[in-house]
Amino acid sequence: MITKKIIAFVLTATLIVGACMMNNSANTVSASTTGHTAHTISPGTSFDNNPLRGFLPFDFSTTTFPHSMEWFYIPVRDVQTGMNTFNWSALESRLNAIAGRGHQAVFRFYYDYPGLSTGVPQFLIDGGLTMRYYDEPSNLGGAGYCPDYENQTFRTSMQNFIKAFGTKYDGDSRIGYITLGLLGFWGEWHNWPYDEDTSDGKPNWNISSTVYTEVLTTFDSYFNKTQLCVREPKSGVPNASANIGYHDDSFGNATLSAANGGQTWSFDQKLINLNQQNKWMTNSIGGEIYPPDQGSFFSGTTWQGSTNQTWAACISEAHPTWLICEQMKNYTGTTLTNAKTAAKQLGYDLQVTTAYYDNLAASAPLYLGVNIKNIGIAPFYYDHTMWPVQVGIKQNGSLVKSWTTTWDLNTIPADKSAKTFEYTVSAPGLSNGTYNMCIKVVNPLSNGNKLGFANAGQNTDGWLDLGSFTVGGTSTPTPTPTPVPGSITVDGNASDWSNISSLSTATGQSATSLKVTNDSNYIYICAQGSGLGTNSQFYINSDNNSSTGYQDSAWSSSGCDYLFELGKLYSHPDNSSTWSWNDLGTANVTISSNSSVYEVRIAKSAISNLSNTFSIGFKDVNSSWSTVSKLPASGALSSYTLK
Asked: Which residues does the UniProt record annotate as the domain DUF4832 (predicted)?
C-alpha cells in the first residue's frame, strides 16, 4: 500500500499508471469520461467470502462457514529469545498454515493471558523482572502472572520486539490485520480488576500513559502497510495522530454508546470520549462477538446480545470490518442463514455502476473509465501497492491481455457515492474482433479468496465482466437498453401502463392497482386509484429478505430497505420497526402524481442491494399522515422479478 501515512490520498488525472503485465504498451490516464460511451453495469449479489472482511474463526477450526481470515494468539516468548534475538519459526508456521488454506491471518502477541502460561520471554524472568501472581475466577480468566510493564529493561525489550516484528512482517501478504496486544490481560490494554479502584482489595496495576504511548508510536512507525488495531484509545496517548484503528472484544455486549442505549464505559463511548468515533473512515475496526452471546446472537428474528444491543445498531455505530466468531462453526438452520447474512454486512462492499469504453478502430488507444461505489459500512483499507486492480480483455471467455492500474480502492468512501477511475492503453495490440472489457482486484495471496464486486457480471475467476466491444470498426454505437414492456413516461398519465399486468389489485378503497416494470437503468412504479393523497409512499424490500430493513406492521412480511416519499428516496439502516430512515435525496428519482395516478422512476444504481426478485408495497397517505389504504391490501408485499 502507499504508506498508511497517505491513506487519504485522492486519485487524480495525474496518477502514475502501473506497469503493463502482458505487453509493453505506453499507458496513460485519461482526463475525463466525457466523449466515451457509458455502459450501465447491473448490480448483483455480494460475494459470501470476500477477503479481509466478515466473521473469522480461530485457526485450526474446521468450518464450511464462508470466511477469508483466521485468528490466533501467540506469546512473545515463542519468538523473542534475547534483547535483540528472535526466532520467528513459531509465527511462520501459523502464517503458512493459514495461507495454505487460502486465508489471511489476524493475530495478537501477548505477555499475559489469564489461564495460560506466561508469554514473557524467559530471559526477562531470569533477569529478575517482577512477575505479579493473580488467581481470578474462571469467568475472569483464571490464574497467571502480570509482568511489571514499567520496568525499563522490559520496555526496551518490548520496543526491540516491535521494531523487529514490523521490519520483517509489515506488508506481508499472509496478514490481514494485526492487533497491537502486548499490554494487559489478553493483550487488551487493561489489567482490570487490578486498577485504580482498590476498594475491592486488589492492588493497582494500571499501565502508565508513557508505556501505552511507547507501544502505540513504535507500532505506528514500523508498520506502514499492514492495518493495525488496538483495543481502545487511552487518555494522554496520541490516539488521533496514530494510523491505527480499534477492536471491540465484547461486540454486541458493550459496544453502543450511552446515548444509543449502551454503557458509559462501552467501546463506542470510549471512542467518543476521546474523539475517535470516526477513526473507521481511515483505519479498520475489528473485534470479537462477545463469546457468551455467540451461540444465540443470530438465533432469533431480532439479532442482539444479552444486553439487548442489536446487531443493526452496533454495526451502524461501530462500522466493523471483521469480527471473531468461533461459534460460527456450530451454526445450523436459521441461525446459520442469519449469520451468513450478518457476516456479509461487515466492512466494504464494492460495486461498479457505470463503465465508459468504446468500440475501437484498428490501432486506436483503449480507454476504460469506471464509476465504483462502496455500498458497505466501512472502507476497503488497502491501496494498489498491496491490492492492485487490473484491467483485462477477454475473448471467448479467455483472458488475452491485462494491465495493472494504480487505482487505490481505499480512496472510495463508504457513503455510496461513486468515484471515477480511468485508464488508457495507447497501443493495446488487439486484432480485429469482439472482446469483453473486465476488471479484477488481485489478492496478493496467490491462492487467496477472490474479491468480488456486487455486480451481476462478477465471475468466479475474479474478473468482473463490463460488457463487449469491437476492434476494427470506426464507430461506437450506443448500447441498446433492455426492452421495456411498453414505453413508460413518468407524466402522471397511466395510459402507457395498459399492457403491464398488476402486481396487486383491490376494490372498495382508494388505491386499486399497483404495477412495476423496468429497463436496464430504471425501475418504474405506478399506483392507481381515486382520491390518492399527496403524502403517499412506496416501500421496497430490495434484497427480498424480510428479516432485514424496516418491519412495517401493515404487511405480514415486509423488511423494507427503501422508501419513496415526497419526491425523495430513503434507505433504512437496520431490521427494526423504528421509523429511522437515511435521506438519499432526489437525484435518482423522478415522480409525477395526481389524485388518480402516483408514478415514480427510480435509478437501479441508487438501490445498493437490489435483488433480481424484490418486493414492493404502496400506501395511500393523506395530508394528516394517516394511511387511507394500501396495496397489497393484506398479506405480504407484492413480488416483482426484473426483466
From this structure: 244-446
Q: Provide the CA 110 distance to its chain's centre, in angstroms.
A: 28
Question: Can you read off the three cell numbers belonging to residue 203?
Answer: 492492588
Cell of residue 263, nine digits: 454503557
Q: What angle do CA 122, 126, 131 make, to 5 degrees?
A: 80
Quote the CA–CA distance of 439 and 441 in Å, as a whole number.
Answer: 7
601-618 core/surface letters (b: 16 or more CB in 10 A; e: else): bbbbbbbbbbbeebbbbb
3-state secondary structure of 307: coil
Q: How far from chain centre, in Å, is Cα 624?
A: 40
DSSP readout, 225-258?
Answer: SSEEEES---TTS-TTTS--EEEEEEETTS-S-G
What's the CA gap between 395 and 403, in Å, rounded? 16
pTM here is 0.71
CATH 3.20.20 fits 54-344, yes or no: yes
d(Cα 201, Cα 156) in Å, to the nearest integer?
31
Range 494-641: architecture per CATH: Sandwich (2.60)
- Structure confidence at residue 519 (pLDDT): 86
Rounding to the nearest 10 degrees, give the CA dihedral for residues 392, 397, 398, 402: 0
User: Cell numbers at residue 313, please?
Assistant: 445498531
Residue 110's φ and ψ, nearest 5 degrees, are -140, 155
Beta pairing class for 143-147 and 285-289: unpaired
Handedness of CA 227, 230, 231, 232 (dihedral sign): negative
Beta-sheet strand order (sheet of 350-356):
27-28, 418-425, 366-374, 350-356, 38-40
Cis before 632 (ω within 30): yes
pLDDT of residue 484: 44
Residue ranges per structural domain of the chain: 4-43+351-471, 54-344, 494-641
Beta bridge partners of 178: 107, 228
Q: In whole angstroms, give the CA distance from residue 620 to residue 512.
A: 10
Asked if 4-43+351-471 and 54-344 have one fold, the answer is no
For domain 4-43+351-471, the question of CATH label 2.40.128 is answered with no
Host H or E run for residue 401: strand 398-404
Give the per-residue pLDDT at 414.
95
What is the three-state SS of 162-211? HHHHHHHHCCCCCEEEEEEEEEEECCCCCCCCCCCCHHHCCCCCCCCHHH
Question: Which ranges of the chain have pLDDT less than 50?
Answer: 1-31, 474-486
8 A C-beta contact, residue 351 and residue 455 = yes
Residue 53 to residues 84, 223, 457, 630, Cα–Cα distance (Å) = 35, 20, 21, 40
CA angle 257, 258, 260 (to 5 degrees): 70
Residues 6+ apart with CB under 8 A from 44: 453, 454, 455, 456, 457, 458
Comparing CA positions, the residue from 302, 418, 282 lying closest to residue 355 is 418
Helix axes 209-222, 152-169, angle to 10 degrees: 20
